Amino acid sequence: VIALAVGGGVLWLWNDAKVSTVGTADFRNELAVPSLAPSHVDKKDGTRVFDLRMQQGGKEFTPGRTTPTWGFNGDYLGPTLRARRGEKVAVRVRNGLDEASTVHWHGMHLPARMDGGPHQMIGPGRERTPRWSVDQPAATLWYHPHPHGKTERHVQRGLAGMFLVDDDRSERLALPKTYGVDDLPVIVQDVRFDGAAFDHGHKMMRSAGFLGDRTMVNGTLDPYQVVRDERVRLRLLNASTARTYAFGFSNGRRFALVGTDGGLLERPAAMERIQLSPGERAEVVVRMVPGERAVLRSHPQDNYGSGWQTRFNGGDDSFDVLQFRAAKRLRPSPAVPAALGEPELPEAGAAVRSRHFELGEGGINGRAMAMDRVDETVTRGTTETWTVRNNHGMPHNFHVHDVQFRVVEVDGRTPPPELRGRKDTVFVPSGTTLKMVLRFDGGPEFADPGVPFMYHCHLLYHEDGGMMGQFVVVDKGQRARTPAGTDSGD
Ligand code: C2O
Ligand code: CU
What are the Plastocyanin-like domain coordinates in residue numbering (predicted)? Predict the structure, then answer.
């Protein structure tokens, strides 16, 4: 019915009919919440140290059927890392797999050699310990492998986790903040099974990459979560490799969007839907009704997503994602504050240079990613405007390492509320041009002419296929150097 109202036409009716049988979950499993990663503080210099180990495992997503998986410190996904702004952190990353990989800190502002991109591979049995100072606002970030040409496969086997940053502002604000109780990580992935094993074949829309036929949250199929608080904060992460979702509640419940990829908004935005393409995050606060069962769903892509996915996926585009079972009596929660503070966005007026990126045939600006080619050289401490155009008959998105950018225009117009905050990944529908402002700040350790950061489409099959480029941050007068071959860790 919703589909008819929005789209009109026979196609949408047909989709709606299909939707009632596809992607419907029976919510029999309690939602797993990733544990908070233990850490210790180094007595010498105060660094908070975490341990991650990539390993093979097996997990019973369905009782009695063990699916071969990969995970960090466990069978599937990884623990939630958590640190405060101003802290020095180090993560000892060990590779217990049979093949080389690397771990990238998606959304984190850190020097290129710590970024875990494809130049910082870790061989089997080897390890690497990136260290940096957390110098960015509170946010929901995440980590995942980034081996060139193999990222889709490594992520969909289970290598992904969240990295939460806290600061004075996030601790002071009256937002739900008890992890696992009224502040929930919601890591959404689409999957398909062939018996017990994952089926990772590209079946539906081959050119998009892998599209599954059901979803899981935090590695739980058919998940439900019992809620005992009046308000719940959901940290939504689209950790799928290709699928874009439009999250909303089955009952049309509105929620407050309070944060985007890189931190809290200036003020909450009341929304009914939030669209997230692969790699994007959103923090939303939803108010529960005592005793209710509310379902977080992904609705057909009916906003600026142009319906592409719905049409080409044969209509399998609507999913029941997570059921909330509200207790009969809920603990009262404070109202969402009307103002959330200064979002720390770059200023368009400060831009000293502009660049253009075409996403299309052959990659970005007609070129496929090459490990030994630096595509762009950026000066540390400067602000730039980048325009990104999707010149292709399919959706892409655009992710930039190191920075949180500000989207200033979507096809010449003011962006919608969900694109007004700090972003590191943004959906770019076919035919659309986005304009963004980026500030490349950081201390002297951020200038590194020989180690590039990446920008790329976060539909991982596209990234693996070469829709990626490299930029270096240098100090004035420095020239980019050809990136050294990948080394393999200690
Ligand atoms: Cu989430 Cu370059 O990656
Ligand atoms: Cu793409």
Answer: 61-169, 213-288, 358-475
Pairing of strands 29-30, 223-229: parallel
Ligand 1: which residue has its CA nearest to atom 1?
A: 106
Q: Which residue from 289, 277, 276 is spatially nearest to 227, judged by alpha carbons?
A: 289
Express each pLDDT in 153-164 by its tens digit. Answer: 999 999 999 999
Superfamily of chain region 348-474 = Cupredoxins -  blue copper proteins (2.60.40.420)
pTM attached to this predicted model:
0.93
Q: Identity (one letter) of the amino acid at 141? A: L
Closest ligand to residue 390's CA? 2
**Could you tell me where the beta strands, DSSP code E, fall in 332-430?**
351-360, 363-364, 376-379, 383-390, 396-400, 406-410, 425-428
Residue 16 banded pLDDT, cuts 50, 70, 90: very low
Atom of ligand 1 nearest to the CA of 455: 2
What does the pLDDT look like over 22-42, one tens digit per residue? Answer: 466 789 999 999 999 999 999
Say if residue 318's pLDDT is above 90.
Answer: no
Average pLDDT over every residue of 351-362 = 95
Report the pLDDT value the prediction gives residue 488, as an integer from 0 to 100. 62
Which residues, by Cβ under 5 Å, contact ligand 2, an ion?
Answer: 396, 457, 459, 462
Ligand nearest to the CA of 360: 2
Establish whether residue 456 lines the binding site of ligand 1, counting it when its CB lies within 6 angstroms of any ligand atom: yes
Q: What is residue 205's predicted lDDT score, i.e. its pLDDT?
A: 63
**Domain extent listing, the chain:** 31-167, 174-331, 348-474
User: Ligand 1: which residue has its CA nearest to atom 3?
Assistant: 106
